[in-house]
Fold:
Amino acid sequence: MTNQMSMEKTRKIKEKFSYQKTKNGTVKKIIRNWQLYLFILPALVYFLIFCYGPMYGIQIAFKDFIATKGIWGSPWVGFKHFRNFFGIHSFKIIIKNTLSLSIYALLAGFPMPIILALLLNEVKSNKFKKLV
Structure:
C-alpha cells in the first residue's frame, strides 16, 4: 500500500515537472524576447565562421590537396606532410626563428602600450592630450 502511494506521488511530481511544460515555457521565453536573441545572432555567426569554419579546412594538412578536386575529393595521405616537415634539415632553424620572433613580439608588444600611456599621462600640454 505504501509503495503504491509513493508511486502515485512520484507520478504527480513527474507530471508537474514534465519536459513538455519546460519546453513550452522555454519556447515562449524565446518568442517573447526575440529581440535579445537577434542581438546575439551577429556574434554567433562570427563565432561559427571564424572559430568553427577553420576546423573544416584543417583537413587539408592530412590530404594531398588538389584544388580542382576540393577538400573531399583529394586523396588522404595521413601524416605524410608532417613527416616531410619534421624531416627537413632546416626544421630546427625554422622552429628557433618562429619562437624568437614570438618572444620578441611579446616583449615589445606587451609593455610598449603601457609605457606609451604612462608617458602620455605625464605630458603637461592639454592641447596635445586632446589631440592624442
In short: Residues 89-132 form one domain. The longest helix spans residues 34-57.
